From TrEMBL:
Pfam families: CBS
Domain CBS: 9-57, 98-145
SUPFAM superfamilies cross-referenced by the UniProt entry: CBS-domain pair
InterPro entries per the UniProt record, alphabetical: CBS_dom (IPR000644), CBS_dom_sf (IPR046342)
Name under which the protein is recorded: CBS domain-containing protein
Length: 147
């Protein structure tokens, strides 16, 4: 089995996409992350949903979880509103890691190794600079366990 056998269409965003829209897309489609495209339509990075969440959760609550407990429930329930006018570009990690991208001929083990190495629940599949789609961790494991 190869990456081409696992790839499926996947929603994409750009660095200019509003972070709130990205969060909505993650929630409504139950996605583990998003593929961020550059101006030429090539994958720039894979943005795990947790990176969007980091932008919404106040830094002081991330640094000291006990502080999150002192926020009243109504305010705590509305923390995602903190995304406001921020963009996906602001969610991108400061230190880019290895890009979780593979070609359609990669084996399942190569895809799994890339996911493990990059700690990404999502791999973009690209052929000749064109995004074909993505492979999610769920798809990879479901197919690997079915064999």
């Amino acid at each position: 089995m190869h990456a081409r056998d696992l790839v499926c269409g996947f929603p994409t965003v750009t660095a200019g996409t509003p972070a709130a829209e990205a969060a909505r897309l993650l929630a409504e489609q139950d996605l583990p992350g998003l593929i961020v495209l550059d101006g030429d339509g090539r994958p720039l990075c894979v943005l795990p949903g947790t990176q969007v969440l980091r932008l919404a959760v106040p830094r002081y609550c991330q640094d000291d979880p006990a502080l999150a407990r002192v926020i009243d429930e109504d305010q705590a329930d509305a923390f995602v509103r903190a995304l406001g006018g921020r963009t996906v570009g602001e969610c991108l990690p400061e230190q880019p890691r290895e890009l979780p991208i593979t070609d359609p001929d990669a084996t399942v083990l190569e895809v799994a190794a890339l996911m493990a190495r990059t700690r990404s629940p999502l791999i973009a599949v690209v052929e000749e600079g064109v995004l074909l789609g993505a492979i999610t961790l769920q798809t990879l494991l479901a197919r690997a366990l079915a064999v």
